[in-house]
Structures are given as structure tokens and as C-alpha cells.
């Protein structure tokens, strides 16, 4: 039987998605359901003087109106930060309370203060307009860079500072800088992004008074984790009385990791009113209240010798957390950022210092890449600048500082098990025709255009993560993953995974893995996920962990099935278990060549006895049935890496940047399904290029979101991109049995510096902030013209 | 969205009769419907004019192209007659919004709305259009009054737009990257005797740039407007483009249009 791992198996999920048969949360309608509308703060910062619901209660169709008072009275807990980060001085981070409905203060535009529940959506909306809230508007803090100088947002949190964190050794770095021939320094902004999943958030909460169970259908990347948080911290219901279902979910990108206010409020309220409640976000609510991503202000320095050896690295960053610290809010700018900030280079001394600040903006949390795009942008912009200032070719300078051997022990945290960065660079150069660039630049010049080329070599730490390691760094949970493989008596297989697919194609790729492990046709394998009532507890999908952690749990559970199958076969065929081999779905006794198929063995496991021709006594000590579970805890992160090269052409008259070529050469370890990986790379690149050239979440001084719709927030479209030139090198991960690394975030990590390095190259080294909009580039072109004229 | 009464008019007369101070005509609904959904506009009555046969279709005579008000953008962009007579008008229509918008939105709706960043008003100015309503004929130069303001009276319905066929013409747009509306769009049309340079997106209302028109009437070459320093004091300034950038883009797009003629 040919191996399915590595082949372009068509996606099993496509039929239902492409024929409109997907079942998303908004598609779920329950008998006698009500509709919720949230009353949200129109102000970025205010105290609530008075909240009057009398008029609204009289509005037609209103079932109930609940406010921050009721939720506090019922002792429903608030939203939480999942990682405890300690400051350099040893103090614990400072987190404000974040009640699901604000009672006294609101801290960003969109912060909910009440929920209106009515018989119809229209009635809920109409009543919501009649809720009267008397706010005392306070001066908002919106700027990342100046947040520490602003008014105190949360009582007791001085300078709006959550923590002041250090990773690395300042003294060693100082010594390295003292020895340097040259110091390259850079000031950069990592622009704030809005994830914009295609499916807006939604939830449907139901209460069963007979079983006293709450069922919450919600748009989540991790239903088990959501249940845990809602139960342990939200006090909504004990875990065994709370079922969380995340059905088909239309994209997450990190924005659906969090338990949100609406999840808690609707679950709590459904029990209170003893009816189902449905809430579906409007797009404008998504813009305002989904977690946002990035938003760093960074000063970084690189100490180098004159021949281009890197000696030391400093990174001083202010990271905006938004109004509250959420699940991955505090780890994203620390342990997901700092350790990766030295990039793919041997830099003997390094530190990263992060000051995480609160502002009156939407909470900032993990968004595709989470911390690693910010890290890669920092080091790769710095290295590109070093190449310009040292006059050393940008690819040569990088190669000069690549590690020469693996495992590669980095200065800060990680030990990278495998990789070949030189091979990746050489292949990318060839794919991009790096040598031919100068000729293309001249062609552009002849047309009056400016052409630039940009390079990024990146690595990332994903497959998160070893529980012992992350818990020692402050994580509130272990980051293992579970799988349960059930062989049904008649030979089909159901695989339950704790991972969640919201676009990642698990139904196909996980089935490929199980099919290979068990020798069962892929058609006979179903992957089940997304329901806390089905399968074991799992940690969910983020940080490119589904395959490298969840996939391995499936492999391990399958291996346990095979081990039991060998014992059962041996008993059935009167052989020694050690003499039984398993291949392509058959158990073969090596000495006699007698065999049983895995289907026959599975059947036997459910019929443990002897009757007529049926002889299937189970070995002593084995129980009937064929079902195995694995909880897999990885021994290390996984480390995808690669080199990307972009070429842009700029029209100096309009400032328009045209991305002419984009080459991505990635090492993802073993690839399960090349077609799915291409999709992941394309999507990641679209978001990464989007950050570089188009996307930007902008607040005004009063904390109003200026880019609150697609009229102003530029989502990239297909015609913004060239045909992507994608290739791979492959070194297998040595820390997991499949040799896989993860591919979901690479594009979003590598693309922003790649594109910006190309833009800045075209502009003769002039810094431009992301996104490189036409006006910014036009101004830079005018400056370039002036300085060229002066030089001439 | 608040409840409203929906009427489908069979002819202009009925549509006009149904109109009141709390009604709106509904063609493609590209602006009306979202405004109502967002609560920015409320109407008691919506009078659908899409089913009025007389309002759809394209007619070409020797001197002009006449397009019915309820004609969709996609019909203008696909029309062989328009492509032959005024190719720039066809390509303008092809560049409006996205396929969904082009399959619903209408020329009459665009002009009646007079969004300062819409594409069609510049075509009307550049191509010396005449706006035919159920009551009268209005010259384009007198039709566009200000931001979202036109010469239309309450209950007055656009029936068709008659464009003068120029010798040469081109429309060049620098789109807002998010909405794809014009940050600046310049429609240059060379008629026998004079040149129009209609600009949209730059100010609160579409206008004919007199200085560039004069320069190009004298010498129809992009060199005659190269480096022109336009007054940016009345130009729009927002997070997508400052007034200075818009002023520069007007000249750049005008040059491109002349070169493309």
C-alpha cells in the first residue's frame, strides 16, 4: 500500500464547504431561542455613573436585560491572562480585573456594559438603543510609545505597566558592544493588526433544566480549554455540567483562542432565563472587540565587527496589551517574542527587554505567528541595515552568521534540533534569480521606476510546547495534546483529537497519518474534534501545534492499537507476539507467514471467545474492545526555518508599491500533504504581505477606532499579490517520530521584513513604517530625489 | 434595520407619485441599503425603480452615448457599443467596486448619490453629459452641487445620462486600497475645440480643473501639465491621503490619462 503521508490527498472537508453544507455556529438554531445584543461603550475610557434599563425593559419583545451588577452579584468571574510573567525586578505582573460586563469602568470602545435579550434580533436591537448609560468620560491612553506617561487606566497599576521583563544578560551584552567595530541601530514599529477571520465570532448557549447542563456552541479554536477557563475562572458551571462545542469555524488566526465576554454572558444568562440565547457579531463588532495583534514599538541594536560577525544584540520593546491582559496576551510579547529575536544567527550576547503597557484599546493577543513575526521583523530589518552599512551582500552577511552545526544552542532559550540554513538560502537565491536582480533593477530604472530586493532568513519556535518548559515560564496549563483512536467492530476507525480545525484540513491530514499507521483506507477513517462531549480533553489549535503535537498523539495512539493487535494476532494464530509483524494493515507471523488483517483483529477484539469457526480468545490480561488513547507531551518546540526573497517596483510619482516577485523557501520538516501546506504558506504570506503593505489598525487620540470597516481597513485581495514562488528544503525534526515541524505561521512571520527590506532597498535605505502606503512611499521618493540631486 | 414599505414602480410616473419626504428611490441599493443597515438613514418607503424597463439600456448615436439610469455597471463595462464609442467609459465601469457591486450598482444611483469619491461623476463632467430626468434635462456642470448634493429635486428621477463622444479620452484612478473608491480619479476628454480634466476624490465634489484643461487645450501633451503645482487648500485630507498628496496625484493621474489617450 502506497504511503498517503506526503501525497496531495484531496481535502475531505471540501465537499461540504464548497456545497454550502458547512455548519457554523450562526447556522445553529435551537427551539424557542432568544437573541442577544450587547450594549457597548462608545467611549475609550469612562466611568459609569448611572445605567438605566427601565425604558428598554418596556420595549417590545424584551425577555431580559442584564448588566455588570447582576454578573457581579452572581459571582461570575472575569476574563484572564493565561501566563504569569515576572518583571526583571522579580515582581509579578499586574493584571486588572476584566468582568464580562463592565460595572464601574469601561476601558475601550466596544467594552460591553449590558446584554439585551429579546424574542427577535430586531427587538433586541431596538431595546438596546433604549438602554441609557450615563458615562463620565475620562482622558484615554491610546499611544503605545507614550502609554507609560498617560493617566493611570487601572487603579493600582502605575505607569500602566503590566510588567518590565528581561530575557538575557545585560552585562554580557555591554561587554560585547564595547568590543564592537560598529553598532547598527534601528527604531521600528510593528503595526497593529485586526485578525479578520472570515466568520465573525458567534455563540449559541442553551440550558437543560433537567440535566442542569449548559451547552455552548461557539467559534473557538480550543473548546476544551474554553470550558476549563469558563468553569474554573468564570464560575459559569462545573466542567461536567458545561459542554462546549466549536463546530465548523471559519478561520481563527489566534483571534478565537480567547474565551470572550459574550461566551460567558450568554452561557450564564441562558441558565438564568432558562432559554437558549443566540449572539452573532456584526462585522463592526469584530473590528472593535476581537483581539488585535502585534503593536510593538522597538529600539534594537546589533554590535558587529567590520567584517560582519555579529557580537551582540539589544532589544528594547514596548508592547501594547490593550485594555486588558488576555489568554496569550502576556506570553506573546515575552516568551514567544524574546527567544526568537536573535533570529537564525549565532550572536554570543543578547537581551530582550519588554515593557508591556495597558492602553484604552481592544485587547492585544496572539495573532498568526504571535511574537515571532515581531521578533523576525526586528532582527531581519536590523541585519538588512547592517548589510547596507557594512557594504556586505545581504545574503553573504546572513550566511556568515548562520550556525554551522545542529543542534544549535541559541544564546537565549532554544536549542534548535535540526535545520540547514545555508541550503535554504542557496535554494531561495536560485529560485528568485538573485543574481539577475541588477539587470531587472536597470530595466525598472529605464522605465522611471525604483526596484528593490529584500531578504529574510527566519526560524520560529512552534509546536507549542513541552509542558514542563512552558509551566516553568509561567503558563497556566500544560501544552500536551490528546488523541483517542477507536476501532469500530466492523473495521472503520474514528479518531478523536484535542486539536481543532478551523481551516487547517485536519479531517484530511490527520486521516492520512492514521491511514498510514493502521493500514486502513482513508475513506474508513473519520476525524472528530471540537466537542467536549466527544473524545478526551485537548488543548486546541494555535502556535502551529496541531500536527507536531496533536498529530503525534494520533501516531502514538495508533501504535498502541498495533501493539495490542500483535498480541491478539499471536493468540489467534498461536504464535509469539514478538514474531508478529505489522505492515500495510496486516499482522503477519514471520515464521509461518500466517496473517490476519487489522479488520479481522479489530472484530476479534469485540468478540472475545470461541464459537464454531470463530476463534478469537483474547490474550490473558487484555480487555475486550480496540480503543487507545495517547496524551503526548513534546520534548521540545519544533523549529521551521527558511529564506524568503521579495522584489518590489515602486512608481515614484504615485508611491505605489508593486510586489513583483515573492519567493518562499521553507523547511517544514516532513510534509504530510503538499497541497495543504501550499495553502497554509499562501495564507500566511497574504497576511504577512498585508501587514507590510496594507493593513493597519488605527485609533485616534480619543480612542475611537478609525479603521473599523473594510472601507478603511485594507484587507489584501488576490490582485495585490504576484504568483507565489514556493519551494522547500527538508531536514526532519529529530524530536518527534514524524519528523514534522509546522507550517501555519511561517508566511506571516517571514513576509513583513522580506517585503519591507525590498521597499527600503528600493528607497535607498530610507526607513518607512509598515504599512508602506502610497503616501509614505511617495514622500520617501521625493526625499530620495532631493538627496540624489544634492549628490549630483 | 428599521421596517419600511417596499414599492416596485412600473414607470417613472408611478415612482414619482410615490415619492415623499420620507422615501428614497432604490436602484442597486449599493449605498441606500448599507446606510439603512447601519442606522445612518431611515425611510418609510423605498421605491424600487429597477423594474422600469425604460430606465435600462444603452443607445449610441453619431454624437452621443445614452445610458439608462438603472443600467448596471457590468452592462456598461461589457457593452460593445460603449467600448467602441467611448472605451474609457467602459473601463471606468469595469473598475468600480468589485464584481458584486458591478452586478447590482447602477449608473443613475451613482450619479444621484454624488459620492465625492465615486467614479461616474467625473465621466459626466469630462464627457459634457446631459442628465435626463422625468422633468427636465440638466447639464452635468450644473448637476453636481456639492458633497452628496445634486440639482435633483425631491421626487425627481434620473432617467438617462447622455454622454458626448469625445475624440480621445482616458480615466485614471488612484484607488483607496481598502474601499477601492478613488482617492483621486482624473477623467481627461479631448473634444473638438477643448479639453476637459474632470477630477473626483480630491475635493468635496467632482470638478473640472480649469488650469489643466486650458494647458491641455493649448497643447494636448502630458508635458504641458508636468510639474504643475495645484492649490491643495480645498483638497480632502484623511488617513489615506493628505491634501498635498492628493494635489500631486491629480497631476500625475492627469498626465497618465493624457499619455493613455
What does this structure look like?
The complex is a heterodimer of chains A (792) and B (261). Chain A is an alpha+beta fold and 792 residues long. Chain A has three domains: 207 residues, Aldehyde Oxidoreductase, domain 3 (Alpha-Beta Complex); 325 residues, Aldehyde Oxidoreductase, domain 4 (2-Layer Sandwich); 153 residues, Aldehyde oxidase/xanthine dehydrogenase, molybdopterin binding domain (Aldehyde Oxidoreductase, domain 4, 2-Layer Sandwich), CATH 3.30.365. In chain A, 28% of the residues lie in helices and 24% in strands. Chain A has 19 helices and 30 strands. In chain A, the strands form eight sheets. Chain A has a seven-stranded mixed beta sheet, with helices on both faces. In chain A, a hairpin with a 2-residue loop joins strand 25 and strand 26. In chain A, helix 17 crosses helix 18. The longest helix of chain A is centred in the C-terminal third of the chain and has 27 residues. Chain A is globular and about 100 Å long. By secondary structure, chain B is an alpha+beta fold. The longest helix of chain B is centred in the last third of the chain and has 18 residues. Chain B has eleven helices and 14 strands. At the A-B interface, helix 19 of A face helix 11 of B.
Amino acid at each position: 500500500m502506497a504511503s498517503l503521508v506526503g501525497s496531495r490527498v484531496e481535502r475531505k472537508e471540501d465537499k461540504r464547504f464548497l456545497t454550502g453544507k458547512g455548519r457554523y455556529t450562526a447556522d445553529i438554531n435551537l427551539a424557542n431561542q432568544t437573541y442577544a445584543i450587547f450594549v457597548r461603550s462608545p467611549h475609550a475610557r469612562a466611568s459609569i455613573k448611572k445605567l438605566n434599563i427601565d425604558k428598554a425593559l418596556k420595549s417590545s419583545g424584551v425577555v431580559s436585560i442584564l448588566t455588570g451588577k447582576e454578573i457581579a452579584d452572581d459571582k461570575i468571574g472575569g476574563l484572564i491572562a493565561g501566563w504569569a510573567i515576572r518583571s526583571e525586578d522579580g515582581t509579578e505582573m499586574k493584571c486588572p480585573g476584566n468582568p464580562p460586563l463592565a460595572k464601574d469602568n469601561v476601558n475601550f470602545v466596544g467594552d460591553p456594559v449590558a446584554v439585551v435579550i429579546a424574542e427577535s434580533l430586531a427587538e433586541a436591537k431596538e431595546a438596546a438603543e433604549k438602554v441609557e448609560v450615563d458615562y463620565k468620560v475620562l482622558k484615554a491612553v491610546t499611544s503605545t510609545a507614550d502609554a507609560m506617561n498617560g493617566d493611570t487606566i487601572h487603579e493600582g497599576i502605575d505607569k500602566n505597566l503590566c510588567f518590565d521583563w528581561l530575557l538575557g544578560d545585560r552585562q554580557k551584552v555591554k561587554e560585547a558592544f564595547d568590543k564592537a567595530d560598529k553598532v547598527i541601530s534601528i527604531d521600528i514599529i510593528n503595526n497593529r493588526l485586526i485578525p479578520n477571520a472570515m466568520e465573525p465570532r458567534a455563540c449559541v448557549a442553551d440550558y437543560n433544566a433537567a440535566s442542569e447542563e449548559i451547552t455552548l456552541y461557539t467559534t473557538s479554536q480550543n473548546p476544551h480549554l474554553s470550558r476549563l477557563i469558563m468553569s474554573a475562572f468564570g464560575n459559569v458551571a462545573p466542567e461536567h455540567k458545561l459542554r462546549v462545542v466549536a463546530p465548523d469555524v471559519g478561520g481563527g488566526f489566534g483571534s478565537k483562542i480567547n474565551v470572550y465576554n459574550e461566551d460567558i454572558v450568554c452561557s450564564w444568562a441562558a441558565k438564568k432565563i432558562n432559554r437558549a440565547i443566540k449572539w452573532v457579531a456584526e462585522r463592526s463588532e469584530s473590528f472593535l472587540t476581537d483581539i488585535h495583534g502585534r503593536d510593538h514599538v522597538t529600539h534594537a541594536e546589533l554590535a558587529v565587527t567590520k567584517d560582519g560577525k555579529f557580537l551582540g544584540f539589544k532589544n528594547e520593546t514596548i508592547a501594547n496589551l490593550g485594555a486588558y491582559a488576555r489568554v496569550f496576551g502576556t506570553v506573546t510579547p515575552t516568551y514567544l517574542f524574546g527567544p526568537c529575536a536573535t533570529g537564525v544567527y549565532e550572536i554570543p550576547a543578547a537581551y530582550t527587554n519588554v515593557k508591556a503597557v495597558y492602553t484604552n484599546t481592544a485587547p492585544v493577543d496572539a495573532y498568526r505567528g504571535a511574537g515571532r513575526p515581531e521578533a523576525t521583523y526586528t532582527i531581519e530589518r536590523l541585519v538588512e541595515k547592517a548589510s547596507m552599512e557594512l557594504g556586505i551582500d545581504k545574503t553573504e552577511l546572513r550566511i556568515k552568521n548562520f550556525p554551522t552545526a545542529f543542534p544549535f544552542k541559541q544564546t537565549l532559550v532554544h536549542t534548535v534540533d535540526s535545520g540547514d540554513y545555508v541550503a535554504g538560502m542557496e535554494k531561495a537565491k536560485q529560485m528568485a534569480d538573485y543574481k539577475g536582480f541588477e539587470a531587472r533593477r536597470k530595466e525598472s530604472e529605464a522605465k522611471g521606476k525604483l526596484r528593490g530586493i529584500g531578504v529574510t532568513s527566519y526560524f520560529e519556535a512552534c509546536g507549542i510546547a513541552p509542558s514542563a518548559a512552558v509551566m516553568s515560564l509561567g503558563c497556566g496549563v500544560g501544552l500536551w495534546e490528546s488523541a483517542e483512536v477507536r476501532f469500530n467492530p466492523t473495521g472503520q476507525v474514528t479518531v478523536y483529537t484535542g486539536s481543532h480545525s478551523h481551516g487547517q484540513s485536519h479531517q484530511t491530514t490527520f486521516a492520512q497519518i492514521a491511514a498510514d499507521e493502521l493500514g486502513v483506507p482513508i475513506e474508513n477513517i473519520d476525524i472528530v474534534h471540537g466537542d467536549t462531549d466527544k473524545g478526551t480533553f485537548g488543548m486546541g489549535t494555535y502556535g502551529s501545534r496541531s500536527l507536531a503535537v496533536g498529530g503525534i498523539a494520533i501516531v502514538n495512539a495508533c501504535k498502541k492499537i498495533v501493539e495490542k493487535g500483535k498480541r491478539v494476532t499471536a493468540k489467534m494464530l498461536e504464535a509469539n507476539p514478538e514474531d508478529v509483524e505489522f505492515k500495510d494493515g496486516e499482522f503477519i507471523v514471520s515464521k509461518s507467514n500466517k496473517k490476519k488483517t487489522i479488520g479481522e483483529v479489530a472484530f476479534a477484539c469485540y468478540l472475545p471467545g470461541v464459537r464454531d469457526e470463530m476463534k478469537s480468545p483474547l490474550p490473558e490480561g487484555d480487555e475486550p474492545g480496540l480503543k487507545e488513547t495517547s496524551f503526548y507531551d513534546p520534548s521540545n518546540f519544533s523549529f521551521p526555518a527558511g529564506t524568503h526573497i521579495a522584489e518590489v517596483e515602486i512608481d515614484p510619482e504615485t508611491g505605489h508599491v508593486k510586489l513583483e516577485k515573492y519567493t518562499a523557501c521553507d523547511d517544514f520538516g516532513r510534509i504530510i500533504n503538499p497541497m495543504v501546506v501550499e495553502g497554509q504558506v499562501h495564507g500566511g504570506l497574504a497576511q504577512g504581505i498585508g501587514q507590510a503593505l496594507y493593513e493597519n489598525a488605527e485609533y485616534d487620540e480619543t480612542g475611537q477606532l478609525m479603521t473599523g470597516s473594510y472601507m478603511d481597513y485594507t484587507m489584501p485581495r488576490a490582485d495585490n499579490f504576484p504568483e507565489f514562488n514556493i519551494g522547500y528544503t527538508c531536514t526532519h525534526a529529530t524530536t518527534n517520530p514524524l519528523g514534522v515541524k509546522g507550517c501555519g505561521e511561517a508566511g506571516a512571520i517571514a513576509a513583513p521584513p522580506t517585503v519591507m527590506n525590498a521597499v527600503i532597498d528600493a528607497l535607498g535605505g530610507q526607513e518607512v513604517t509598515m504599512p508602506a502606503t502610497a503616501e509614505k512611499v511617495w514622500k520617501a521618493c521625493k526625499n530620495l530625489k532631493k538627496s540624489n540631486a544634492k549628490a549630483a | 434595520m428599521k421596517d419600511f414599505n417596499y414599492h416596485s414602480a412600473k414607470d417613472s410616473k408611478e415612482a414619482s407619485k410615490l415619492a415623499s419626504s420620507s422615501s428614497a428611490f432604490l436602484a442597486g441599493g449599493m449605498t441606500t441599503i448599507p446606510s439603512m443597515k447601519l442606522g445612518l438613514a431611515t425611510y418609510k418607503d423605498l421605491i424600487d425603480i429597477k423594474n422600469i424597463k425604460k430606465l435600462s439600456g444603452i443607445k449610441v448615436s453619431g454624437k452621443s452615448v445614452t445610458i439608462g439610469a438603472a443600467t448596471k455597471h457590468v452592462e456598461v463595462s461589457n457593452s460593445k457599443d460603449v467600448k467602441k464609442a467611448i472605451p474609457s467609459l467602459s473601463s471606468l465601469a469595469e473598475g468600480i467596486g468589485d464584481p458584486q457591486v458591478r452586478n447590482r450598482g447602477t449608473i443613475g444611483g451613482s450619479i444621484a448619490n454624488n459620492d465625492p469619491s465615486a467614479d461616474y461623476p467625473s465621466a459626466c463632467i469630462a464627457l459634457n453629459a446631459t442628465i435626463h430626468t422625468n422633468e427636465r434635462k440638466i447639464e452635468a456642470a450644473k448637476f453636481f452641487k456639492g458633497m452628496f448634493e445634486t440639482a435633483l429635486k425631491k421626487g425627481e428621477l434620473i432617467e438617462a445620462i447622455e454622454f458626448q463622444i469625445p475624440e480621445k479620452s482616458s480615466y485614471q484612478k488612484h484607488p483607496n486600497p481598502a474601499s477601492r473608491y478613488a482617492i483621486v480619479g482624473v477623467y481627461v476628454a479631448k473634444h473638438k475645440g477643448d479639453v476637459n480634466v474632470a477630477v473626483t476624490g480630491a475635493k468635496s465634489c467632482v470638478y473640472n480643473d480649469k488650469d489643466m484643461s486650458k494647458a491641455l487645450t493649448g497643447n494636448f501633451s502630458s508635458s504641458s501639465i508636468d510639474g504643475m503645482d495645484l492649490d491643495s487648500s480645498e483638497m480632502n485630507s484623511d488617513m489615506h491621503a493628505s491634501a498635498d498628496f492628493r494635489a500631486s496625484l491629480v497631476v500625475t493621474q492627469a498626465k497618465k490619462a493624457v499619455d493613455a489617450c
